[in-house]
What we know:
This protein is about 35% helix and about 20% strand. It is an alpha/beta fold and about 500 residues long. The structure holds 6-O-phosphono-beta-D-glucopyranose.
Amino acid sequence: MATIIPVASFDCVxxxxxxxxxxxxxxxxxxxRYKDGQIPGTSRIIGASRSEMSVEAxxxxxxxxxxxxxPARDLDxxxxxAFLDHLDYxxxxxxxxxxxxxxxxxxxxxxxxxxxxxxATSPDLYGSICRNLSVHGLIGEKxxxxxxxxxxxxxxxxxxxxxxxxxxxxxEQIFRIDHYLGKETVQNLLALRFANTIFERLWxxxxxxxVQITVGETVGVEGRAGYYDTSGALRDMVQNHxxxxxxxxxxxxxxxxxANSVRDEKLKVxxxxxxxxxxxVQAVTVRGQYxxxxxxxxxxxxxxxxxxxxxxxxxxxxxALKLEVQSWRWAGVPFYIRTGKRLPQKLSExxxxxxxxxxxxxxxxxxxxxxxxLVIRLQPEEGIKLExxxxxxxxxxxxxxxxxxxxSFEETFKQRYPDAYERLLMDVVRGxxxxxxxxxxxxxxxxxxxxLLKAWADRPEPPRxxxxxxxxxxxxxxxxxxxxxxxxxxxx
Length: 492
Ligand code: BG6
């Protein structure tokens, strides 16, 4: 078990304290960090939302949330009771004037605490919450503001949010969350590339044929149809999570691990992404929308029925793209990325497909000239697998077959994998922004997404229907097979 170093004592104000994110992710993450002794006993987690509620009632809600979202084996009654004692609550109207004096009075009790303000609200409120924090004198050197996605729905709205927040917080105090960056295996990508000599030297167009990034989900839109229908998979997943994974895959070595060095390198990748134009949108993109089908053996309805019978929606729930990073390192290496709801598996992985050996000395009947493949599995069953060719044992002659050098993190480290939010929340308290997005990154990613959204909007055809429980429309398979390549799972 790794040594846990406690963070500084803090007062974390969570706006949107009764919302889904707080219930499902933030409270469980803070509970685990408390249970492991990382949160000092003088810290407070102050829920803030419009509802009038007593502290006791808020603690009861939190107890229910933890019982639902933390596995029973990790819920120690004493620790749970002690954790709940650190919870406080104030009714504050993020958009108006009510409650701010109460919040100010509460925070004034402990003026020296680190103060993360977590905005787990609708982004419409980010500007007014920040203004209020400033008007009430609640921003100091030890304050930080944490912004959840979506940061806008296009470049213009993202700029407006960034301007409003930037008016009162300097960039170093703004922590834009992309929770994929907090996932253990995503950070492992940095370790794999920059703590080993063997891979980095092969990380070029000379040796790599192409890269695949898949983020598949089995869930549909759940209770978020209202938000999702104005967003779609490109805004919800690609503009942030998938592009961030692509950046970590493709970036040059940063000078150090400090926030700006890493973010400078990611930014260069985003700038090198070839914009998708109306001219090539048909050839390099596929949009899909799930229709009725079956997931995990259970019948499920289609997206439009999930919206309550809305028949006109053209929102995409699946995207497959062929991307190009225009740089010396990556010239000619396609990055195929895809993500979707209601796919057969919850699976996130990055596949690096190396080129085939240029020539085979083995006889044709030896079966084998499979190119090597590196599979970085982000979830579930986190791990890294390198497929190499080996000789089939026995006297039957020189027959080859692919075999795996396989590291399963669970088996190797035999410990619970912390949720991304645990790491990210502690980084906020520590003031370490390496795993958070800087303003320019978000805006360059939006500029790229905007050109694709525009190209799609100009097309007459709607997204292609795919049955729930499949890997998207068949056109997504054609997208990669046209190039003589195959999506990873289809090979098995
Ligand atoms: C969120 C998206 O950012 O990421 C959701 O808004 C998506 O639509 C979720 O389900 C996926 O995250 P994870 O960690 O479950 O892969």
